[in-house]
C-alpha cells in the first residue's frame, strides 16, 4: 500500500499513518511496527520521517531525551526542596503537633489521677474518723487536756 507513494512526495506518503518516508532514497515503506525505531537497512534515522515531514527520527530522539531528562531533574529537585523545607520546619517548630497533643493528654490524665487520689484519701480519712481509727499526728494529744 505504501509502495505506491515511492518517488512521489513526503506529504503524500505520510497521509497514511502506517507509512514511513525515507528522504535519502525517496522511498515510502511500511513502518516496522514490531520495532520502535526503523532498522538501519530500511532507512537511516536522520533520513526517516514519520507523522510529519519536517522532523526526522534522530532529532525526535534527541528532543524527547532532553525533555524527559529535564522533567526528571525538575521532579528530583522539587522533591529535595520539599523534603528539606519540611525538615527545617520541624526543627524550627520543635516537636510536631502529634507529640504536643500526646503530652497534653498525659498531663490531663496525671492531674485527674492526682485529684482521684486526693478524693479517695479524704473519703478514707472520713471513714477512719467516723469509726475512731484515725491516726493522729501526736498520739498523746488526747491526754493533754
From TrEMBL:
It is found in: Membrane. Residues 1-54 form the PSI domain. GO terms for biological process: protein import into nucleus. Keywords: Glycoprotein, Membrane, Signal, Transmembrane, Transmembrane helix. The chain crosses the membrane at residues 59-83. Residues 88-124 are annotated as: Disordered. GO terms for cellular component: cytoplasm; membrane; nucleus. Residues 90-124 have a biased composition (Basic and acidic residues). It comes from the Eukaryota. InterPro entries: PSI, PTTG1IP. Its main location: membrane. It is a single-pass type I membrane protein. This is Pituitary tumor-transforming gene 1 protein-interacting protein. It comes from Chlamydotis macqueenii.
Amino acid at each position: 500500500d505504501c509502495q505506491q507513494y515511492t518517488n512521489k512526495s513526503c506529504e503524500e506518503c505520510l497521509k497514511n499513518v502506517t507509512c514511513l518516508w525515507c528522504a535519502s532514497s525517496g522511498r515510502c515503506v511500511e513502518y516496522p511496527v514490531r520495532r520502535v525505531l526503523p532498522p538501519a537497512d530500511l532507512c537511516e534515522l536522520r533520513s526517516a520521517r514519520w507523522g510529519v515531514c519536517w522532523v526526522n527520527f534522530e532529532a525526535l530522539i534527541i528532543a524527547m531525551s532532553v525533555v524527559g531528562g529535564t522533567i526528571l531533574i525538575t521532579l528530583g529537585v522539587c522533591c529535595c526542596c520539599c523534603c528539606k523545607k519540611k525538615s527545617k520546619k520541624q526543627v524550627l517548630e520543635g516537636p510536631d503537633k502529634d507529640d504536643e497533643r500526646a503530652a497534653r493528654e498525659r498531663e490531663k490524665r496525671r492531674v485527674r489521677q492526682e485529684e482521684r487520689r486526693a478524693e479517695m484519701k479524704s473519703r478514707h480519712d472520713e471513714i477512719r474518723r467516723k469509726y475512731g481509727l484515725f491516726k493522729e499526728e501526736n498520739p498523746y494529744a488526747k491526754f493533754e487536756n
